[in-house]
Amino acid sequence: MSNAALKSRTRADYAFFQTYRTRWTDNDQYAHINNAIYYHFFDSITNAYLIAHCALSPTSSSLIGLVVSSHCAYFRPLAYPAVLELGLRVNKLGRSSVEYEVGVFEEGEEALAAVGGYTHVFVDSASRKTAALHEETRNGLRRLLFPPPSSSPASSKL
Amino acid sequence: MSNAALKSRTRADYAFFQTYRTRWTDNDQYAHINNAIYYHFFDSITNAYLIAHCALSPTSSSLIGLVVSSHCAYFRPLAYPAVLELGLRVNKLGRSSVEYEVGVFEEGEEALAAVGGYTHVFVDSASRKTAALHEETRNGLRRLLFPPPSSSPASSKL
Amino acid sequence: MSNAALKSRTRADYAFFQTYRTRWTDNDQYAHINNAIYYHFFDSITNAYLIAHCALSPTSSSLIGLVVSSHCAYFRPLAYPAVLELGLRVNKLGRSSVEYEVGVFEEGEEALAAVGGYTHVFVDSASRKTAALHEETRNGLRRLLFPPPSSSPASSKL
Amino acid sequence: MSNAALKSRTRADYAFFQTYRTRWTDNDQYAHINNAIYYHFFDSITNAYLIAHCALSPTSSSLIGLVVSSHCAYFRPLAYPAVLELGLRVNKLGRSSVEYEVGVFEEGEEALAAVGGYTHVFVDSASRKTAALHEETRNGLRRLLFPPPSSSPASSKL
């Protein structure tokens, strides 16, 4: 999807939200949140969801998600001490990989500030070899799919 | 004050609070919040207070606070995705310098996790020469003094 | 260009190099360099080149570069305490924008570990409105163009 | 030791050195290396020494070092893109704890920019209970003691 198309995202396009307070050192010497900091946010909301809703334990799970590619488009500058609202969705759910998208909004502002995300490939935590998602992980991530899959064949007949 | 004495600090010993969500990369490879991250928190709550209550504008104020020394004692490990409650107080307010103390608590936990702080010297933002605190800054910081200065001359006669 | 095509990049595909020592907190709790850290490296080599070869002064230049989009593909994990060699090139040089690419190599290793980059739009440092690159900046960045533009019409006749 | 006394430290007061290139985001919006970044450097040189000379493997050693207190005094501002030279020494070596000191110098500058350090307590990596240093660790750290312990009674007669 092009960056121009992503610019029209609203909070209604995301399924799971968390609020993050920015920090003094998030601002670089141009006095706005540095571009790299957004990726720290992507990691934070994604792993928070995996821990809370997909039974991930970073220190003991047999499968962990490693990032193979990431991207971000920046539309409006943000600056400490703003409070940010992050929205998370899943755009694609494969056998062993997931594509997440995160929308970044400032508290009290309608317009999207930035949008990005990354692709996780799940691997065995010891061998680091690719592995199929556990059912528990798949079920948790399916709830973030956008657009939501039709939940029942019957309902699609209406 | 010794670290042992500081260990008994409670939320009642602090004057201003902010809540911070931890981030994935706050954990180092020992799976707990890295010791350096606490200093990022100290900077964040201190400057947030200066901006909100002491008229500091980091990009345009004529005086800014620079850190000349800092310290921290760690009592209990914390880990992402914990939510932290930071308490701020001022231990000493000089002509051009301030000693801040920050207590770090985990949401829902009584016991102090860490305590630290730093000394700010206020300087001219252009020349970086030491300067006396503006009255507005001094008034804002005086409200964080612990123990609070006696509020009325009458009471000091007793 | 697809990530698969980028994977075959070698040091010969880059024009400017810097060596960076990794840090303890670059490793996240999976014991490898966190995906967000690569973007800190991109910012570091790009601005170092702009300062050294394009007359950028981040605190006083009338034009500064702001990041409008960024991306990275990760091929091989890296871990502290590795020393990294970063290579920089320019893929596109517009009137007011530049597309940088950075290749990340581990010292002593042939294979590319990661590749990414970002697009800078140059803006007036005060108004933050888009502006055409200064000639000095354009000349410095042109030396990083890949493939290099033919340097003289005469030579292209051979 | 008072901060004033530490200010006179020179490179000759340290036993192990590493060079670190600063990064764009080390500078905060006051355009100098942020105070918290120095602690990231302390962690980096200390663990690099432990890995190279004390057989530490952060992912597999049975004992790991946890930071129980840290401190820093800042004498001269530093700024990206400076290259820094860090010097490491051990001030105290206990049964299960170590006090490190790190001097921060800018490449090409005589004067000390900052000095700080921290205390490591070694713990079992699984139970996180305090444990006596392994002989291999103790031997490595002893070589950093300042002032150096007299190596043999005989030699002092000369």
Describe the structure.
Chains A, B, C, D: Belongs to the 4-hydroxybenzoyl-CoA thioesterase family. Chains A, B, C, D: Keywords: Hydrolase, Isomerase. Chains A, B, C, D: Pfam families: 4HBT. Four copies of one chain form a homotetramer. The first copy, chain A, has one domain (3-148): Roll (Thiol Ester Dehydrase, Chain A). Chain A has three helices and five strands, in the order αβαββββα. Chain A has helices spanning 3-6, 37-53, 135-142; strands at residues 16-21, 63-74, 83-93, 97-106, 112-124. The first copy, chain A, is globular and about 40 Å long. The interface between A and C is medium-sized, with 27 and 27 residues.
Name a few traits of the molecule.
158 residues, alpha+beta, disordered C terminus, Thiol Ester Dehydrase, Chain A, homotetramer, five-stranded antiparallel beta sheet, isomerase (chains A, B, C, D), Thioestr_dom (chains A, B, C, D)
What is the overall silhouette of chain A?
Answer: globular
> Which ranges of chain A are low-confidence, i.e. pLDDT below 50, for 5 or more consecutive residues?
152-158
| Helix-strand topology string of chain A | HEHEEEEH
Number of domains of chain A: 1
Question: CATH homologous superfamily of chain A - what is it?
Answer: Hotdog Thioesterase
CATH architectural name of chain A: Roll
Average pLDDT metric of chain A:
93
Oligomeric state of the chains?
Answer: homotetramer
Q: What is the radius of gyration of chain A?
A: 17 Å
Main sheet specs of chain A? 5 strands, antiparallel
Based on helices, strands and strand pairing, what is the structural class of chain A? alpha+beta
**Largest inter-chain interface?**
A-C, 27 and 27 residues
Domain Thioesterase (chains A, B, C, D): 31-110
Family (chains A, B, C, D): Belongs to the 4-hydroxybenzoyl-CoA thioesterase family.
GO molecular function (chains A, B, C, D): fatty acyl-CoA hydrolase activity; isomerase activity
Protein name (chains A, B, C, D): Thioesterase thiol ester dehydrase-isomerase
